[in-house]
Each structure stands twice: as C-alpha cells, then as structure tokens.
Write a structure and sequence with these properties.
Layout (H helix, E strand, L loop, with lengths): L1 H77 L3 H24 L2 H23 L1 E4 L11 E9 L6 E7 L1 E4 L2 E4 L1 E8 L2
Parallel strand pairs: 2-6
Antiparallel strand pairs: 1-4, 3-6, 4-5
Helix pairs in contact: 2-3
C-alpha cells in the first residue's frame, strides 16, 4: 500500500506541474496567436493602402488620358480642314490675280477666261484630292436619287423624263450625294 500511496503522491505532485504548464501554454499560445493576427492585420492594412493608392493613381491616369483624348479631338476638329484649305490657296491667289488684272486692264474677256480657269482648277483639286464628283444632269434622264425637280414641262418627242436645264449644280463626295442637282424636267406628253 505504501507503494500505491507513493505513486498517488507522485501523480498528485506531478499533476500541478502539468496544470501549470497547461495554463502557461494556452496563455503563450494566445499571445503568439494574437501577435500573428496583429501581424496579419498590419499586412492586410498595408495591402489595402497599396490597393487604394494604385486605384487613385489609375483613376488619375484615366482622367489624364480622357483629357488628352478630348484635347486631341478638339485639335483634330479645329484643323480637320487644313489640307483642303491649303489646296484651295492657289486658286484663291489666282482669283485675286484675275480681279487685279481685270481692274487694271478693264478686259472682260480676260476676266471671264481667268475665272473659268480658276473654276477648273478648284474642281480638279476637289476631284483629285477629295473625291468630289459633279453630277452631270443636263440632257440626261431624270434620276430622283441625284436630282430634285424644281420645274417640269410636258414636251413632244420625249420617251422618258429628261433634264432640260440645271438651276443648281449637284455634287457627290466619294459616291454619296452631298447636294442634289436642282433641275427642270421635261416630261413626255401623255
């Protein structure tokens, strides 16, 4: 029995030590866990801060890009016609020379010839460089997709509606009608 008592005594004496260690371990474990959680919170806060900073930078970059596009668009619109204006400067100079010559020489035929040459020059530039086409209408069959009838007259000898006279010239730009020809149409008698 003594032996049993001694063993119980040893167990009892050993037990409080185990309990103390068990009590210390959860406390230390809790501190370690708390430290790990605090470290994780710091890391997450740092990541959040970096993400916010990146988002703000991206937003600023997007706004700057938008402003740059708007400015580029305004510049493009402002100078969109620069090439055509440059093309028309020579005919404009020729008009000035024709007017000056007409004032000095009082030559109507010379003025008429000069103006006709400038008109041809302008039409050639617009056709060659810009795709402008004149709608040839006089004497042709009436085409409502290219022409507007401002007047009509019934006539003998016509087998279809025909353009008799052009009041205002029509034009196409790259095949698209940008101004219909205003015409007088001859209609066959019924």
């Amino acid at each position: 029995m003594d032996k049993k008592k001694e063993e119980e005594k040893e167990i009892i004496e050993d037990k409080p030590e185990v309990e103390e260690e068990a009590v210390k371990e959860p406390s230390e474990a809790a501190d370690d866990e708390k430290q790990a959680l605090l470290k994780k919170v710091e890391e997450l806060e740092k990541a959040l801060s970096e993400a916010k900073d990146k988002m703000l930078r991206d937003a600023a970059e997007t706004e700057n890009y938008r402003k740059r596009l708007l400015k580029d668009k305004e510049t493009a619109v402002r100078f969109a016609n620069e090439a055509i204006v440059k093309d028309l400067l020579d005919p404009l100079d020729n008009f000035s020379r024709a007017i000056k010559s007409a004032n000095e020489n009082k030559d109507f035929d010379g003025l008429k010839s000069g103006i006709s040459m400038v008109e041809d020059q302008i039409l050639s530039i617009l056709k060659t460089n810009w795709g402008l086409e004149v709608i040839e209408a006089e004497g042709k069959p009436f085409d409502p997709s290219d022409m507007e009838a401002y007047a009509a007259e019934e006539m003998e000898g016509l087998d279809q509606e025909t353009v008799l006279m052009v009041f205002q010239q029509g034009y196409k730009l790259h095949g698209k009608v940008i101004r219909s020809a205003k015409v007088k149409v001859g209609k066959p008698k019924a």
